[in-house]
## 1
Amino acid sequence: MKALTFQGPRSVRLDEVAKPSLNGPDDALVRVTTGAICGSDLHLYHERVPIQPGAVLGHEFVGVVEEVGAHVSRVKPGDRVVACFFTYCGRCHYCRRGWFSQCEKKAVFGYGEHFGNLGGGQAEYCIAPSADQTLERIPDAVSDEQALFVGDILATGYFGAERAGIEAGDSVAVIGCGPVGLMAIMCARLLGAARILAVDMVPSRLEMAERLGAVAIDGRSVHSSEAVKAETGGHGVDRAIEAVGLTATIETAIHSVRRGGTVSVVGVPDTTSGEFPYMKLWWDDITYTGGVCNVPAYMRRLLDLIEAGRLDPAQIVSHRMKLEEGVRAYEMFDRREATKILLTP
Ligand SMILES: [Zn+2]
Ligand SMILES: [Zn+2]
């Protein structure tokens, strides 16, 4: 089968690799109909996360079930499904408490040997382990393109907005308007935010944020947190969602909220430790939360919201390309020339 594989720093390749087959009774074989490139794929592309050359990339995909193992009962051949970006067992200490993203057997699709060594979805076929957990059936009224988002970035945007504690009438700042930030804007609106301020430095992303109903703040021309404060009577927003992961953007989020506000970080931190404004958080009664999205807890309800017409994540798709164009797609996405790229085999 055709697949995009990692080759080295800033190097991916369209390869012909063996079609994967079921490894156990809990697996399903999925024929991928649409995959996507995610911002976190760039961590691999830039070797910030190690992955072995030749590994098949991609953790955002939808497809049709082609074959299932003997223990799989929730999906069957012919079902259209979306995959959670990671697999989880459903039985361990954390899964039994509903915190699937901390599963003791968690593995991430297309993310290398440190994350379970699973094949990825930027390919014609992919094996979904623990298929009853990992895969969710797609309602007829929801397109493949829409469904693809619930397995990672829409869930992450919703998780960020929910953990920010957004209530009707709140003002919200979204720091970073890449795909996850744009999802967070949609979800903040859904949860009742009255005003959403969108901070970024890429014009196309700010334009999309405005189209989604946010007020754009261009960090190239203003001091971001001061601009947020100026827009909120000098106080700062009720809630800030950070969707980048840089120390500087996390600080912008902290300095953008009012006293007693909430900062919710979903951006993958680019550093393991560093200075942190402990005193400000304490003195200003700021609630700080962050973490890996517990995706499976949200997939079903997000599909229902899309089906009901309350969310349309596919509107951020900027490029639809063939898997064969994957090398160019990675280059474009890396240069921020594309907001969201879908790849079809
Ligand atoms: Zn992702
Ligand atoms: Zn588990």
## 2
Amino acid sequence: MALENTKYDCNKKNLNSKCKFCGKDLKPIGLDYLYVNISPEFIEYERCTCEKSINYWKEIDMKDQKQKKRQHYKEIINQFYSQNYISKRLKEYKFDNFKVTDINKKEVEIAKDYTNKCINNKLENGLIITGNSGVGKTHLAASISNELIEKDILVLIGRLTSLLDMIKETFKDNSKSKNELIDLFSNLDMIVIDDLGTEKISQWALDKLYTIIENRNENKLPIIITTRFNKQNLLNRFYQSNDKDLSNAIIQKLYQMCYGIELKKYDENEKEKVSTSNQTKC
Ligand SMILES: [Zn+2]
């Protein structure tokens, strides 16, 4: 095929497009339009400089950027789950396999309601799930997470150290910057920090935690915490970092941002006692 036949003559074929706001003629950009086999919708035109067009493109560009960022976050999260055994195991925890008993059914309902509000974007508050070990805190938090993930909501769930290790890893791996991960933690739809306070917390970890909580609060994004400690004991655990002021600030902010639910241990022998005491209350 002769070369001249494979090209459009721009003027003859009238490839100009018009601005849909002010009607100005717009010229195609790049060289793609020169080829016969390109379909018209893929031809890119210059952008008009009228005000309405500028605003129109600003919005398109912002959406596009947001989409790209989300995709990038998704890749980082998937990488984390593929490398993190515990977080991988958490994927099996669902509301369906959570053992509902007389003593926790109210809390499970609250957790389900919280999940639905998250899905419908009607939520800024976080959730602190407390209770002794073995009562199902992690299971409940992971059930919420998995339900959100199914709805294509971006969730990161893990212990504080494994989450923060992602930042440390970036010192070795130049493909992700430290700020990029702080940005991810600050903007992700949901972050779940499991078993907070169990691990010894360093000054460095405390600093990072503060930044993340502060940013999420500002961005009106929720956070879920599970912990076996009550407020005062969690604070005491944080004091190990030797920064009492920062510890106080974190705990205060966290309890401001979050609803609290406490899971209790179900004990067959206690069952009768509990219902008796409930009756006397009534
Ligand atoms: Zn225009």
